[in-house]
Design goal:
The protein is an alpha/beta fold. Helices cover 32% and strands 23% of the residues. The radius of gyration is 17 Å and the shape is globular. The chain binds inosinic acid.
Length: 195
């Protein structure tokens, strides 16, 4: 099955195609002629994933999926959440985001947090959503050089290392995105057996 993944992020594409396997031919936004940034105007991760998937489906008529991810920190009422990419600044400034997060949590003993990824899949016009969650906590200082984003600050439950101290392979087996993609694969197989 040919399926559009609503991303131009090579890192995400490689990660997802490795899990999906060769039965699925993943196509990027650029390959279907969508070069503009898709507006992420939703108030939640679920809404943004849905908006992005519909944007692609309406323009191409092709089966597609889109993802949206956020870090939800309990003591901050779920922030940065849907604003994770632009927490500190208007751009994707990971360093500034991490500094802001540490600052906001200064003096707080509750450091519980989770990463949540929502994927919206549209096949033959029908939308379905899956989510992947990894629970953990925010460290008191950054550690590790792997990964990206909030990885140097996020310690998953049952581990004493941050995501940035893990190999990509180790992170993928427990991560929010890894879990969401595993559910996506299951869903695609279920849909295919119906045809
Ligand atoms: P996106 O929806 O996948 O683009 O993610 C939004 C933002 O969440 C990113 O810009 C990162 O700041 C953060 N983020 C998403 N996934 C991860 C991850 O696996 N590790 C650390 N930060 C992440």
């Amino acid at each position: 099955m040919k399926i559009v993944f609503a991303t131009n992020n090579a890192h995400k594409l490689a990660e997802v195609s490795a899990v999906l396997g060769s039965e699925y031919e993943l196509v990027t936004l650029r390959e279907v002629g969508i070069t503009e940034d898709i507006p992420e105007t939703g108030a939640t991760l679920d809404e943004n994933a849905s908006i992005k998937a519909h944007y692609v489906y309406e323009r191409t008529g092709l089966n597609c999926f889109a993802d949206d991810t956020g870090l939800e920190v309990e003591a901050l009422g779920g922030a940065p959440g849907v604003h994770s990419a632009r927490y500190a600044t208007d751009g994707h400034d990971f360093e500034a985001n991490n500094r802001k997060l540490l600052h906001e949590l200064e003096g707080k003993s509750n450091r519980k947090a989770r990463f949540r990824t929502v994927i919206s899949l549209i096949v033959d016009g029908v939308e379905r959503q899956v989510e992947g969650i990894v629970e953990g906590k925010i460290a008191t200082s950054e550690a590790g050089a792997e990964g990206f984003g909030y990885d140097p600050l996020f310690i998953p439950d049952d581990y004493d290392r941050t995501f940035a101290e893990m190999s990509a392979e180790e992170k993928n087996t427990i991560s929010h995105r890894g879990r969401a993609v595993a559910k996506l694969v299951k869903l695609l197989h279920e849909i295919e057996t119906k045809y």
